[in-house]
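Dear support,

We are seeing what looks like truncated structure output for some complexes. This example has two components. We would appreciate it if you could run it in full and send us the complete token output so we can diff it against ours.
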Amino acid sequence: MAQQTDTGAGPSAQESGSAGAQRSGSGGTGEAAVFSRFTRTECGDLGLSIDRTGQWHYQNSPIRRIELVKLFASVLSRDEDGQHWMTTPIEHGTVRVEDVAFIGVGIETEGVGPQRVVRIRTNLDDVVTLGPEASLRVVEADADGNPALYAPVRKGLEARLNRAVAYDLMVLALDADDPRPQGMAADTIGFWSSGHYFSLGTAVDGMDGEG
Amino acid sequence: MLINEQWLRDRLAARQGSGLRSDVAVALSLGLDPADGPRLGRPADEGTRAAAVLVPLVRRDAGLQVMLTRRTDHLHHHAGQISFPGGRLEDGDDGPVACALRETVEETGLDPRHVTVVGMLDDYVTVTGFRVTPVVAIVQPPFTLSPDSFEVAEVFEVPLAFLLDPRNHQKVARTVNGRPRPYYAIPYESYYIWGATAGMLMNLYNVLRD
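Here is the complete output from our reference environment:
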């Protein structure tokens, strides 16, 4: 009896147990997805924008509080289509960005030659270490027709190096006169950072004559 | 242009980091070909010596004026040149502001009680190897000057509006020691403002312009 009961209850208990586990498993995932979808409001355009100088605006009014801007920037990302998103636990929406989210405003260097490390500081005090994983993007002519250098910051976000920093890198390359990697033309202008050689040749050609 | 003290403070802070930071950078921006020799005189590994200058904006009825000095002809560095009051950081100096004020007192006799510091321009490295911190200040007249006749031949003022007018900014292509050496010049009356002083004034222009 007891055995029958046991055998009778066994499969049923097992069944319900496994079914319960399955249900709670799928239900858990489903609930989590539903939960996040319904609690994180899709806001569309958040009314936030970043202009070419890196200045943030809300409804076209500049946001003066730098701490607030840094907070916003910490939850900013850019997807593969170039769209900028702000994602918080409760909101998800787009931010209009005229060029890129950051401006590179300073450089610091450590070491010499191939051992050198070059760091770029952004207008919001992020620090990017140039290297194989973080290389410069050279644009011959940006929206204004000027050459520009871009450095990756994080989460798809980039910093455009301001004119001063671009020239700082040029001066660094000229002053340092680093050994060039094998096979690279002897008149290449460039510098090492984190074991990666950065050539500025084309960037500089474009910069000539800019007042 | 209406410039008050607070606006000046805010603008100097907001545009920090946007200036060209050396004679070499200026030369490159003016079209110096890197192939024409990387260095403009200073050995790369020699390092820089810290210095500071005062960029004195004198509040006159006609508008702000920039106070400049003409160096005496016998000075080893910068003979006869137009420059801001200033000089090398000394051991006793508590930073660039103290240095700029001390040098200004020594060179022009301007009493610091007339001077209100409002910020800095970006550091500027000269071909002679000085890393200069330009300290921007409002100077309130009336004041009397007693220029140091050994260092300073003359203290004079140029209207800020003149210095900020792009029509007065000349790009000069000159050859020094057989190598091209482009620089900015801002001639005013009999004064020829050029080189590092003009470079720092261009940075001031970029801070103040729209």
